[in-house]
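Hello,

I think I submitted the calcium ion job twice by accident. Can you confirm which output corresponds to this input? Input:
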Amino acid sequence: MKKKVINLLVMGCLLSGLSTGKLWAQNAPAKPNVILIYADDLGYGDLGSYGADKIHTPNLDRLAASGVRFTNAHSSSATCTPSRFALMTGVYPWRQSGTGVLPGDAKLIVPTDKPTLATVFKDAGYRTAVVGKWHLGLGTQVEKNWNDVVAPGPNQVGFDYSFIFPATADRVPTVFMENQRVVGLDPNDPIEVNYKTKIGNDPTGKENPELLKMPASPNHGHDNTIVNGIGRIGYMTGGHQARWVDEEVSTTFLDVAQGFIRDNKSNPFFLFFALTEPHVPRMPATYFKGKSDLGYRGDAILQLDWTVGEVMRELDYLGLTENTIIVFSSDNGPVLDDGYVDGAVTQRNGHNPAGPLRGGKYSIFEGGTRVPFIVSGKGIQQNAVSDALLGQIDLLASFSTMLGQKVPASAIDSEPLYEALQGNTSQGRAIMVEHAGTLAIVKGNWKYIAPSNGAAYSKLTDTEYGNNPEDQLYDLSADIGEKVNLAGKHPQLVKELKALLQAERDKQ
Ligand code: NG6
Ligand code: CA
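Support: Only one job matched these inputs. Its output is below.
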């Protein structure tokens, strides 16, 4: 009799479990929190775990040791906006015009009617947020009212919450926006932005260089409106109380990010934490100034590393570390002089921001897109190194499969590689297209760069773009620095890769 009761009780529990969906939930995919930390212009050689010996990044090195460090992972492009477009949409940015580096007043370029990396999580019941650099445009057109909610923006492409700056740290408007409304705006001092002509009476770097605390490099164009003693690209007027202090940007983002994590500690969340370091203008918190002996660029990397450490500390404190995945990467490769005289060049001290790679930001050589890429946390191998070929563009499809969803049809260039991201296999992509001024295709150890009549070198930023009117073919397994062009030696291979690249271009 007793036994029966127990059985009935068990049956009852099972039934009630079924009716409330509890049993079903046991078989449903796990929902670890995901934090994507996205650095700005951090190079392959900028972290200790990637071979840097002139700069110390203990927190990121710890993250790498606790997870998988990828050695052949890429941003889609060698600049910011296109890389972020690919990350969000799963579509190569070169398929669509208007996806190049955007001015600060550009309209939103992410479609609002298609799945994004953020909607993938949102559809799975996650709370989603973006905190940090946006640079994907806002609103429907260039002309907009910055004194009201500016839409569409992040909140219309899958983020429940957003705390961003609109473009880059060197572009106006130099303000934070919370859910697309300028933070701290005095309605009596409305903001206007113009990228064509000077507006208002604010001093500019061109007319008032004596007001600058950090000089602009000649001919880069960072000599428009001065904010916080730094000349910017573009003109703005008004919003004086809302303008950020560069030294506080990073800690502001960190504080907001930690707040979001705390607020969502009891439910699954996805946080896109888009840091501004070490992009120009490099003006780290005073505490970090002079700490690296590599100028402000090095100091900004120390600040970045500290920030990542603070995120990890917050997760530990809240007991979330085990159930969270951290992905860390960078939107493109490194550059030293990108517009300001900040010591990056003069105090280089032998530091190689691209490590063994050729080129950097803006370049079709590996230095443009092969970036640090670390995955750590729930379900991820520990202390592993993977040479799987993959791209940030693959995160959308990979997380879709992790969440038990179908890969969205619109994400035509995103490959589901979750097993590779976990470090369970080194099988990544068979082929991948790289993008700067021209396109390249990688297959196995071979890389073919399509001919281009673009400039081969930029004196301004001291960058080898990698453009060449001839075919280029490199064997990355023997020549990671892309020094020996083997196109003449392997015409058949060139033909094959050219055709593969054409097929990728034609894909719809
Ligand atoms: C370039 C800027 C550079 C930087 C870059 C965008 C000039 C001469 N240089 O046009 O300073 O802002 O755009 O960087 O204007 S990115 O990382 O957001 O792509
Ligand atoms: Ca960038």
